[in-house]
């Protein structure tokens, strides 16, 4: 007998919980980021909140450019004084959430879907979103020999990074709006969804095993370099062409015990975003330099330049769009209707913004008060 809807939703949540922890290191959570010495501790600096270190997680994606630049240019280290910045790189949201829950990291840059899943699975006890970082930078790139219009996507094989991740949910929602039926768990239906790590998707695209991909930067631009064409920029589907792609989360116990350290990281994030927006070419180079330090390989200009242009760096977490993305996950059958009240605590961020004469940001009714 077919399962009822509540059973399907529970299976969806269980499947997300069971996703493998895809870390870059053989042991532990994430791999340690490297720097070229730009983040030296200043003479006479004092520890923040008495901490020896603050552990910060992020992905090796340009959509995490705030963190990349913050590490490379020393913004985090400057604000934390003698408290050592210890960055770690991840390639999947579930592994970063697991690292946060275990205390392996304290603060992280991450997408909205893992944030929602982490918060709801812990009954609101795991994390808080404390700031924004980036909007945009997600595209549907296709093989122009096989797909020339949106309707041509039907019947094709489209890659997304991972079951239930932010881009997977976005593509499933878009496909449903086209009137196509797709089983979220198996990816089978009027369109076949192929869950493929961003690292291998360009090779799969080049080999013809997928016909396109709904992916973040720089993967989208890597596909374009392989002959792909942008069929759809996700930003065109959102009001004002803005939607959260990366936000900042913190372990709730760390937020409670070390608010000064959290404030220091948020000051650094705001300063990094300000510098990125004022010096786009230098910022692009700095982000690429950190990617090279972390992975051993820099992005070529043909990938880096268009990818960087498609991302907006912002302190605003764009909270209203997170609520919409949660609704999309529910619609796809990957999440039971969540209670997101309290997922945001923007108190410290707004304190930092106010001190700089900037406009406070809003939690769209999903804040702590």
Automatic annotation (TrEMBL):
Coiled-coil zones: none
One Pfam assignment: NMT1_2
UniProt-listed NCBIfam families: SsuA_fam
Signal peptide, first to last residue: 1-25
Keyword line: Cell inner membrane, Cell membrane, Membrane, Signal, Transport
PROSITE patterns, per the entry: PROKAR_LIPOPROTEIN
Gene Ontology CC terms: periplasmic space; plasma membrane
Name by which UniProt lists this protein: NitT/TauT family transport system substrate-binding protein
Gene Ontology molecular function, alphabetical: ATPase-coupled transmembrane transporter activity
Matches recorded under CDD domains: PBP2_NrtA_CpmA_like
Family listed: Belongs to the bacterial solute-binding protein SsuA/TauA family.
Localization in the cell: Cell inner membrane; Periplasm
Domain of life the protein comes from: Bacteria
């Amino acid at each position: 007998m077919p399962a009822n809807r509540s059973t399907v939703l529970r299976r969806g949540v269980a499947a997300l919980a069971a996703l493998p922890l895809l870390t870059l290191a053989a042991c532990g959570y994430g791999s340690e980021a490297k720097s070229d010495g730009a983040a030296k501790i200043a003479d006479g600096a004092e520890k923040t909140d008495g901490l020896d270190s603050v552990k910060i997680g992020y992905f090796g994606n340009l959509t995490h450019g705030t963190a990349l630049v913050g590490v490379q240019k020393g913004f985090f280290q400057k604000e934390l004084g003698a408290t050592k910045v210890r960055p770690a790189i991840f390639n999947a949201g579930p592994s970063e959430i697991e690292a946060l829950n275990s205390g392996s990291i304290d603060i992280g840059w991450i997408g909205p879907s893992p944030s929602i899943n982490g918060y709801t699975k812990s009954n609101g006890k795991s994390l808080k979103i404390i700031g924004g970082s980036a909007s945009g930078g997600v595209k549907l790139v296709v093989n122009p020999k096989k797909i020339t219009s949106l309707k041509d996507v039907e019947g094709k094989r489209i890659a997304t990074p991972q079951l239930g991740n932010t881009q997977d949910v976005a593509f499933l929602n878009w496909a449903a709006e086209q009137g196509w039926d797709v089983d979220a768990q198996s990816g089978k239906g009027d369109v076949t969804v192929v869950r493929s790590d961003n690292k291998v998707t360009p090779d799969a695209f080049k080999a013809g095993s997928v016909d396109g991909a709904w992916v973040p930067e720089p993967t989208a631009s890597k596909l374009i370099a392989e002959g792909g064409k942008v069929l759809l920029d996700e930003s065109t589907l959102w009001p004002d062409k803005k939607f959260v792609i990366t936000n900042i989360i913190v372990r709730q116990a760390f937020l409670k015990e070390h608010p000064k350290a959290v404030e220091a990281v948020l000051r650094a994030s705001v300063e990094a975003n300000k510098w990125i927006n004022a010096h786009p070419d230098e910022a692009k180079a700095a982000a690429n330099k950190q990617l090279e330090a972390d992975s051993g390989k820099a992005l070529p200009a043909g990938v880096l330049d268009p990818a960087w242009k498609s991302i907006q760096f912002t302190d605003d977490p764009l909270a209203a769009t997170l609520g919409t993305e949660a609704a999309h996950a529910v619609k796809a059958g990957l999440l039971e209707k969540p209670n997101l009240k309290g997922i945001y605590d923007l108190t410290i961020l707004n304190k930092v913004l106010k001190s700089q004469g900037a406009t406070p940001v809003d939690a769209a009714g999903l804040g702590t008060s």
